[in-house]
Amino acid sequence: MNLRDYLHSCYISEDLTSVIMSILKAGKEISEKIKNVDIGTAGTENIYGEEQMALDVLSDKIFQQELKSNRNVGLIASEELHDEIKIGDGNYAVCYDPLDGSSLIDTNLSVGSIFSIYESSSFIGVAGKDQLVAGFIVYGPRLTLIISVSHGTIECSYKDNEWLVTKDNLIVSEGKMFAPGNLRIISERDDYMKLMEFWMKNGYTLRYSGGMVPDINQIFLKGKGIFIYPGCPSKPEGKLRLLFECAPMAFLMEQAKGIATDGNARILDKVIQSIDQKSPIYLGSIEEVKRVQTYLS
Ligand code: AHG
Ligand code: MN
Ligand code: MN
């Protein structure tokens, strides 16, 4: 089945389908650019004080271009922009991380794009649970997509010029695999050290690339595991962005029967107070997330 037929079978409107297709068109274009253009830095910084890669800036432009040419989109926000931008009168609001893992570009590891679609005139005041659609594209040896329109989470693959559903109904259940982000804070957090000891002494498999997209993608495909990116006393909210990274990943995870919390609250209940808001995140199978919450209280 192709993605269009799948969306039709979920009663997704033509307008919303067209927004999804615009995002995927941007993704296809970015996948070509990754192979062919400059992989160096752009010489600029984003609002988080991070050095932008030339491909961060280009990927953002490609997203903007595709979304601006879709009359159903009224608002956009990007990890690489300073604020949300009203671009038209359409009902849909699209936010995105145009290139996740861009610091890995030079190493030729997989990178991705993460996106969410809401129906709102501002992202301020929305919560992750208001998402209509969430997804991410993986630029790896294959071009793949993980997406949810609130009917479970599926995987699609780009083949012969179209997106085909390659795995429907992805489920994340218990299993011994862990992706421990921000490990360098262990010097500030003994509890994180104890959690690592638990995983290592109990035969868990370490799977961590440093890119949120591939690190979480494998959890969906293997059907087990956990990804965490905790904060620390000097940086309590960690690094990952609630609107652009945590909320879409949490939506996809809950639709696959896993959970996602910040240690106290469900990620999808957290209300966006500023576009650049960050949050710690523990995301994966139910029991494993609960274990992390017990260790990292
Ligand atoms: P981005 O490339 O969009 O800035 O995001 C990178 C993120 C995420 O992909 C990953 O989980 C995390 O940064 C890793 O960060 P550190 O290596 O700094 O811990
Ligand atoms: Mn990112
Ligand atoms: Mn990014």
In short:
With 297 residues, this protein is an alpha+beta fold. 31% of the residues lie in helices and 28% in strands.
How is this fold's topology laid out?
Blueprint lengths: L2 H7 L4 H23 L4 E5 L5 E3 H15 L4 E6 L6 E2 L5 E9 L10 E9 L13 E7 L3 E6 L4 E7 L2 E6 L5 E8 L9 H12 L3 E2 L5 H11 L1 E6 L12 H14 L3 E3 L19 E4 L1 H10 L2
Parallel strand pairs: 3-5, 11-12, 11-13
Antiparallel strand pairs: 1-2, 3-4, 5-6, 6-7, 7-8, 8-9, 9-10, 13-15, 14-15
Helix pairs in contact: 2-3
The structure holds 2,5-anhydro-1,6-di-O-phosphono-D-glucitol and manganese (II) ion (MN) (2 copies).
One manganese (II) ion binds next to β5.
Question: Main sheet: which strands, in order across?
Answer: 4-3-5-6-7-8-9-10
Helix fraction bin: 25-40%
Radius of gyration: 18 Å
Q: Work out the helix count.
A: 7
**Structural class, judged by helices and strands?**
alpha+beta
* Number of spatially distinct domains: 2
User: How much strand content do the residues show?
Assistant: 25-35%
